[in-house]
Design a protein that fits this description.
- With 178 residues, this protein is an alpha+beta fold.
- It has a four-stranded antiparallel sheet.
- The protein is built from five helices and seven strands.
- It has one domain.
- This is DUF6505 family protein.
Amino acid sequence: MRLPRAIRLDPSDAFIFDPAAEPGEWVVPGAFRFWGADPAGLSGKPRQAFRSGFLGLSSFGWSTLATVSEATSAEREAAVTLLSQQLVRHMGAPSEAEARPAAEGEIAVAASLCDHPVGTILAVERTLEDGEIRERFRTLHRRAGARLDPARAFAFVPVEEEEPVEDFDIRTLGRTGS
C-alpha cells in the first residue's frame, strides 16, 4: 500500500507555515483543521496552510508537497493511531476510540491520492467555493532516470555588494510599445 509523506525541496515551508511538517512524516490532506474557522477570514501563515498545505501526523504541521511512498500495514495502523491521538489533542475529540473512525477515513483519503508511482510529488490547492471547502490535487512526475535533487531546481549565489534596486511596474512587463 502507499501513503503520502511530507517532502521539502527547499526550506520555504519552515518560513511559510507555523508549524511546518517535518520531511518524511506521514501526511493527510488535513482540511478538517479548518472546521469551525472562517477560511475567508484567514491571513498570513494560517491562510497559506489553508490554501496549499498537507497536514503532518507527527508535528500536526504543514507541508506544501508530499511524495507517494510505500507503507506497510503496521505503518498504516500507526498512522491511524497517531492521527486519532492528534484529533483528541488538537481537535477536541472526546477519546481516541471515538476519533478512530475519522482518522481511518482521513488515512483512506490520503491513500487514495497515492495511486501513482512511488516518488510522485503531490500538491493540494484548497479554496472556499459557495461556502464549502474544495480541494484539488496535482501530481508532478519525475522523468525516467532523473534524481530528486533540490539543488538542481534552485541555486543560491553569494552577493558581495548590494545591487541598486530597479523601480518598475510589474503590470507593464508584458506590454509592448509603451
